[in-house]
Batch of 2 targets.
Target 1
Amino acid sequence: MTDFFKGIPQIKFEGPQSDNDFAFRHYDAEEVVMGKKMKDHLRFAAAYWHSFAWPGGDPFGGATFERPWFGDTIDAAKMKADVAFEMFQILGVPYYCFHDADMRPEGEDFAENTRNLETMVDCLAQKQADTGIKLLWGTANLFSHRRFMSGAATNPDPDVFAFSAATIKTCMDATMKLGGENYVLWGGREGYETLLNTDMGRERKQAGRMLQMVVDYKHKMGFKGAILIEPKPQEPTKHQYDYDVATVYGFLKEFGLEGEVQMNIEQGHAILAGHSFEHELTMARELGIFGSIDMNRNDYQSGWDTDQFPNNVPEMALAYYEVLRAGGFTTGGTNFDAKLRRQSLDADDLILAHVGGMDACAAGLKAAAKMLDDGKLEAARNDRYAGWDTDTGKGLMSSDLDAITAQVLADKINPSPRSGRQERLENLVNRYL
Ligand code: XUL
Ligand code: CO
C-alpha cells in the first residue's frame, strides 16, 4: 500500500439522499436496469494517462502536479502502478486502459522501450490477478515523442512508419497478454499542418496499409477482442484524417476493412467535429461499427479538447439512450478519458472527479432506460415514418423515376407537411431526468 490515498474510504452506494462526498448516489453496481446489472451496462474504465501520467501543464505553464511516481525509472513506474490499482479498487471500477508510454519508462530506443514495456506488463498482470481488475483496452502512444511530430503511419519518413508499426506490435502483444478486451488506435498526428508540404494521397495510403497490418496481426495472433479507431477532427494536428465516424467509415471501405474495425467514440471529439455525441453514436450504430466510448466533456466556450469529467446528466441520458439502442456494449465500455483541472492537486480531487463522473453516467443510464422502457419516444419516431411501412411506401424503394412519376400523376400525390413535434419530444425527455 502507498499512502497517496490515505484516509480515503472505499466508495459505496448510499443513495440520492446521502450527504457523503465519498459515496455514490446513483451508481449501484449490482442494481439491475433493463435486465442487466449497472456494472455490466456501464463497464467503467479509468484512464492511466490523465490520472497518473499527466503533470497538469497547459500552453502557459508546466507541471502543477507533483506526484511521487513521476520519473523515468522502473521503480517509479511500479509505484505509479501501485497507486493506479489502489484508485481502481477505491472506486470499484472493473477496468482500466493505458498507452505504453503511460505505464513504462521511456527508453533510449525501441529495444529498451520494449524491455520496459515487458517488465511493466508482468507487473500489471500480477496486479490484475491480485485484484480482479481487467484491461478494457491498450494502445500505443504514437504522438508525444518528438519522433512522431510529423505523424506515425502518415509520416513522410519511412523509418517513423517502421518504428510505429513495431511499437504497435509490442502494444498489441501487451494488450493480448493482459487479456485486454479491445485494442485502440487514435491517430493524433495522422493528418497535416499545411498542404504546402503534404502529399495527402501517400499519407492516406500509408495509414490504410498500417491499419490492414494491424488487422492481419490481430488474426495472426488470435486476439479475440475488437480493433477500435477513435475519431477526432483536429488537435494536436490541424487536420486529422480520422475526422469523425462517417469519415472513418469511408476510410475503412476504401481499404477493405469494414467488418474488421469498430469505433471508440469520445464525447469531446464529437463536439470538436461539430456534432453532438448522440450523432456520432447513432452514426456508428447505423453503420454497424459501434464499439466503445471515451467519456468526458468539453467546455463549450473554449472550443478545444478540455477532457473534463462528465457531469451533465441530460447529455449522458441521450448518450446512453443511443448506447442502449445499439444493444449496449459487448467488448466496449465507458472509459473516463478525462483529466482533473490543473488546480485540482489533491488525491481527493482525483477520487471525487471519478465518483461524480460515474454517478452522472449512472443517472444518465437510468434515465435512458426509462425512456426506452416507456416507449413514447420510439412510438413517436415510428409514427413519423409510418408511411414507409405501407405498401406504397415500401414500393417506392424498389421503383424507378418513370414509374414514380406515373404514380404521382395517377394518384394525384400532393404531400401535406406534418409537425416534427420537436418541443413536445424535448419536454418528454426532461420528464425522465
Ligand atoms: C486524445 C485521446 C486519447 C485517446 C487514446 O484526445 O482521446 O487519449 O483516447 O490515445
Ligand atoms: Co480518447
Note: The first strand starts at residue 12 and ends at 13.
Target 2
Amino acid sequence: MPILVVGSVALDDVETPFGRREGALGGAAVYFGLAASYFTEVRLVGVVGRDFPESHMELLASRGIDLAGLQVVDGKTFRWGGKYGYDFNARDTTFTDLGAFAGFDPQIPERFRKTPYVLLANIDPRLQLDVLEQVERPEIAGLDTMNYWIERTPEELRAVLARVDILLINDSEVRQLADEPILLKAAARILDMGPEILVAKKGEDGAVVFSREEIFAVPGLPLDSIIDPTGAGDSFAGGFMGYLAATGDRSPEGIRRATIYGSTMGSLCCEAFSTEKLVDLAPHEIEDRFQEYKRLTHFEHAPILLNA
Ligand code: AMP
C-alpha cells in the first residue's frame, strides 16, 4: 500500500562534534519518505524554491519517491540550521528561514488522493486539515507536530487529532499536549482526543507506544557511532508507517514490529550526516539492525527464591 507524506523539504546546515554540512538535503518529508521507501511506494507533497539542487531531486527519485506533488516555486527553499554538542538529545536550532515554505499551500495531485496511508508531517495544523479535506478518508492517517503548534493553534491541532489514527511525537510534546506530567496519564488523555495509537519518541532513549490494548517500549540501542541525529524522529515515523503500509498488520504484534522497524530506521539515520545513510541501505542492514534490537531486549525469566 502506498504512503503519502506532506511536509517540509529543506536544505539543512548542521554542525555536530564530528563535522558540519551546509545545504544538506533535509526536511521532515524527506527523512520520512526515504525511510518509508524501503518498505513501500512513497508519494511526496511539499514545496521548494528554484535553488533546490537537481541532484537532490534525482536522489529522491532514485529511491522511487514520486515527486509529482513537490511544487517548485519562485523564492528560496526552506533552510534550517541545527547544532549539537555531545548530548545528542539536546539540540540548538541556529536559524529557521522559511522561504517558500512560508506560503506552502499543499496541493494533492489527483492521482495521490486515494492513497491509503497518509503521514501529515510537522506543518501548520490548518494545512494538515486542508490535506485531509483533499484526500479520500485514508485507511491510516499519521500525524506529527511540535511545541510551536501545541502552543499557538491548539484548537486546530485538536481538530486534526480527532481525524487521525496515529500520533508520533516526542515524550515532552506528549506531556505538553495533554498538560499532564505523568507520561502514562498524558497518553490516556491523548488517546481520548482521537488517535488509536500514540508513539512517544524519546530520542536516543527509545520510544514508548500506547494503544488501548497495550503499552510497548523499546530502549535506545547503544550505537557504535552517532554522527548526526537530525531527522531520526522522521525516519522512525517512516519505518513505523512504512511497515504498517507494507503489511497492513495493526495487531498488537504488528505494532511492536512497526516500532522496531521505526527504531531501526531512526538509528541508521544517525550514523551519517543528513540523509547520507538513508539513501542506499542494503535490505540486510535493516534486518540486521532489527535483530540487534531483538537481542538487546530479549530476556528469559528464571524463578529464584526471593527473600521476603
Ligand atoms: P528531526 O530531527 O526529526 O526533528 O527533524 C529535523 C528536520 O526537520 C530537519 O531536516 C529540518 O529541515 C526539519 N525542520 C526543522 N524545523 C522545522 C519546522 N519548523 N517545520 C518543518 N520542518 C522542520
Note: Residues 252-269 form the longest helix (18 residues).
